[in-house]
# Entry
Amino acid sequence: MTLPCEIPLTSDEPVASVLRILRLDGGEGDAFTARSLPQVRRVYGGQVIAQALLACAATVDDEQRLPHSFHAYFLRGGDPSSPFSLEVERLRDGRSFSSRRASCLQDGAEILSFLASFEGPEEGLIHAWRKPDVAEPESLTSALEIFRAMEHPVGRFLGKTSAFDVRHVGRSLYTAADESRSPRQCLWMRPRSTVPESASQVVHRALLAYVIDQVMFEPAMRVLGLSWMTPGMSAASLDHAMWFHRDVDVNEWLLFEGECSNVNNGRTLCRTRVFTRAGALVAEAEQQGMLRVPDGASRGSGRWGFGVDPATGAVRVGAA
# Structure
């Protein structure tokens, strides 16, 4: 049995809940069992990506080799009330790189197909995209303040359960659209409490993969004049790729620079770069998603669920 990656725990909620859910149970061979946070209608895409990355990392015997990229396809929505398995295939261990494939299975059906690559440290040529010049996080409004001021059960719910403090440079999309219709946005993010010092670099990268999925849709929504409260909006991640360029410390304020390059045929394409406060480019991600809203030709299903179930009054938050 392959032992799962060690995830240090903390008593500080809601970060503690995220760390607990990233802890996998070992099974036979390179198979693991994972569970989901309870507050979402479908398994949150960032969560299962982070769990798949940790499952693959557990099978890489060379501790010097860290994940530098992964590519994932979301095949169907998962049920957060049921556990699921992560089955890892060791594709190759070469002189410089290790490749792994993971399949996430629930009730006999695959909900995520995942491919990751690992590499050790190497000296060589250096170039990186420059960090944009934006306002510092201390001068910006926290999303937590916005959530707590909302006269809406979703706002109260997110004010309690959001594990990361998000601060947009400019208008957020939580309550209303951005009239500028810009295809770009910047925001700062860090956990609401400190991830323990004993957390490995693999865990820090998995946490960044976990949280970046929360903001990948926003540049597309911004340019289209949508907000998270747009009635009937349906959103789902289709495929997601991420590249880690340098070590990352998720306890720092990190700047997320996002842009939308295309929207058509019900699909969006957005890219996000992640910088340290000092200006180092640590990672970037690209995601294609499905985005639909009611109009004369089509209608959204409302399966995004950023609202309240009119039949039960239960809070519905999250996308697959």
